[in-house]
Amino acid sequence: MKKNTFTKLEKNWIYYDVGNSAFTLLVTIILPIYFKYLAEQSQLTSQEYLAYWGYGVTISTLLVAIIGPYLGSIADKNRKKKFFFILSLILGAGASFSFPLWQTWLSFLVVFVISKIGYNASLIFYDSMLIDVTTDERMDRVSTYGYAWGYLGSCLPFILSIVSILYLPTIGMDFLWAMTIAFCINALWWIGFSIPLIQSYRQKYVESAEETKPIEVIKTLKQMRKNPKVFYFLLAFFFYIDGVYTIINMATAYGESLGLDSTGLLLALLTTQIVAFPSSLFISYLSKKFPTHKLISICILAYTAIALFAVQLDKLWEFWLLAICVGLFQGGIQALSRSYFAKIIPKEKSGQYFGIYDIFGKGASILGTFIVSFLTHVTGNQSLGIGSMVILFILGFFFFKKSSHLLEE
After folding, report:
1. pTM of the entire structure?
2. All residues at 6 or more sequence positions from 389 whose CB lies less than 8 Å from its CB, including other chains
3. Are 311 and 247 in contact (CB under 8 A)?
4. Phi, psi of 289, rounded to the nearest 5 degrees
């Protein structure tokens, strides 16, 4: 096999990033607009709309953070990664198909939480599969290409969704029917690009088959504490990726709450995906020439600047600039964090470790979304909530430097 080519299994693993990225865009851009439509029907204020959306994201990530490591441990010991992956996919995509059935903001928010649980849970098992589908030397490249093609591939269902939402109502189709078409497009795309991985994946690394108990997760956390390289990385990851995911999850809702034009917001965030494709590939190229930890440090500092800029944001062109800057670093910080962690953990415990990784990652976005929602609710100032992310990036940078120093020793 040539060094710069991918195996069939590596390609199939990358395809799932293409598939699940459609749901990411749906949650980030389209669903907040639909939720705002339902919220306005119930006469919720813009502050209440943003706060309740943030609470929904928080609840979904909290529940996965609780059950993720336990399910990951079961998967490690019983060759069940594929089983739980498929189960999560069915839960997430199935709920997505049902979105149009819920016509009140509260019922829709409940189903959204269910779909987000399925999506987040699927990523625990998907990320842990990276260890089985490639080698340590190729992990940075495979991981970054996954995010890169995910960003580019998700543009097609997103564009089709936007055409459905913006154009079909102008020729007489009801807005809810247009939304239904958009929801089905994204759910089918997600499922379709999952099939190759489901068909070809085989779990290589298996932990000794002892009975799995919830207390084992606590034991694993204690073991991590004895491995400072892993421990400090997870602390860093908790803070800096929290800020990243909060910005991703709240961007459209933040722009909508400021009264910015919805069409402009959609196009700006599509630009984020387009910019992220070449940027992720460039970071993959840089990972061959520079240590992974140095590239992650640069990405954290860049996001600190992005959060500072977002504090004063009140114009659409500023949102466009923000979207482009996010695209430059979003794929890199996610992909390199995933491969960095995969290299420093025991391979036979990858499911459980990535379950804990999810707690400190997407599970940790509980903190960021809650802070934004709470500060917005209490003060009535959205910018104050978004600006608080700067503190998370500073803490993340501090702990990551401690981890990377241990790596260099």
Report:
1. 0.75
2. 243, 246, 247, 307, 310, 368, 372
3. no
4. -110, -20
